[in-house]
Amino acid sequence: MNHFDVAIVGAGLSGIGTAYHLQERCPGKTYVILEARDRIGGTWDLFRYPGIRSDSDMHTLGFSFKPWVEAKSIADGPSILKYVQDTAEENRIRQNIRFGRKVTRADWSSEDATWTVTTQSADGADEERFTCNFLSMCAGYYSYEQPFDAKLPEIDSFGGQVVHPQFWPEALDYSGKRVVVIGSGATAMTLVPSMADTAGHVTMVQRSPTYVASRPWEDKIANTLRKWLPDRWAYAITRLKNVQMQRFIYNRTRTNPEKVREALLGVARKKLGEDYVAEHFTPRYDPWDQRLCLIPDGDLFKSINDGKASVETGNIERITPEGVLMESGELVPADIIVTATGLNLVVLGGAEFSVDGQTVNFPETFTYKGMMYSGVPNMVQTFGYINASWTLRADLTAEYICRLINRMDELDKPVVVPELTEADRNMTARPWIDDFSAGYMQRVMHLFPKQGDHAPWLNTQDFAADKKMVRRAPLEDGRLTFADRQPASEQKAVSAG
Length: 497
Description:
By secondary structure, the chain is of the alpha/beta class. It folds into 2 domains: about 1-145 and about 345-490, FAD/NAD(P)-binding domain, CATH 3.50.50.60; about 155-215 and about 265-340, FAD/NAD(P)-binding domain. About 30% of the residues lie in helices and about 20% in strands. It is built from 13 helices and 23 strands. It has helices at about 15-25, 45, 60, 75-90, 185-195, 220-230, 230-255, 255-270, 275-280, 300-305, 390-410, 440, 465-470; strands at about 1-10, 30-35, 95-100, 100-110, 115-120, 125-135, 160-165, 180, 200-205, 210-215, 295, 310-315, 315-320, 325, 330-335, 335-340, 350-355, 360, 365-370, 370-375, 380, 415-420, 480-485.
């Protein structure tokens, strides 16, 4: 049994960032990072498909404490992975990582004021337990083992190769071949132009269109600022600029969606023409009801105009040995089919949780500030934004964990737990992510905690609001209880909802 003050689950962007904040703000605390895989990087190590990149700029996706100094603001996957790895090396974080330890369950004891975290090796043969006083869940939000299965009809009849981006074959040769990419999200729109220069032709088959926004690979303002200012100053200014721009654009999609819609479609029309955009790039929903897809320097538009790529919009009737048969009767020929059909979301890395022997049913809990759960002690989850860069929220969450741990020490209270008051019990229960119709979210919202209709029981998805609620609001707010260990004879059933 290994005991630590804090256990962090996951060694991706969130986990490495949380470790840094702990070292800086809680220097006396011991911690361990439990990583299921054998490498640092999470998403940026797992995905290896052609063109893998961020669809957020690195001045907001990067850590608040480590300036992004590369010329490209929209970075490719290997560059982001190196950035995360460098952060771990520079700050001596790697030595605290236990690789090959997948967390399968976590059990809280009020009598001991500790979590017992059970882990397994990749093959499931080796089980190891760790104990900690505080648990930081940085495992992301999707399954690494099982992507979403769109159940494409008769996919097994296809005579060529079927590939999912999450498990990209290292030696896949698609030069000169006809490639069909099924999907219209960020992954598909990254793959199509990246593969088009080598493949014979790439067709993106989509059921319905998605909004596309073109931005330059490089941020000219950021690159200019770095010539005249220290990296940290230039980075901070650019980060502030981009945060404000993200917020402005998102707010405009809520207050004047038609104007944003016309602006986005107007750019596409200039590149592809009225008819092509009407058929393939005009969604049925408003901007940011689902995520916008970023195409750096209009690379997808260029591939289409060059004749290297095309889009087919409509329902798939079935997969044939020769390709994809649409309900329209058109056959889209293929040598390779790439199923960019999405992810399977999981709650807290798919682990099971219990509090004093009782299983935690997360859909019956309310989220506290989008980070903790009613009735669940000494645990914080990192979950980023769907409408802004993930790391903006991850940094805030890490800061909060440190504030919380330091306050527990000041009060000499080993337990902290969010609890509903009588006034809270009648509040309206709302989905964990509200006002967002993307299928990958809607499929699993019933598995996530609820949010309420008033603070602090909100998952705002709003960086400005979170800075007030998370960074600036007092810890003692009438809902967050700091407590002593609880002898077994005094324990009572924990009702999350």
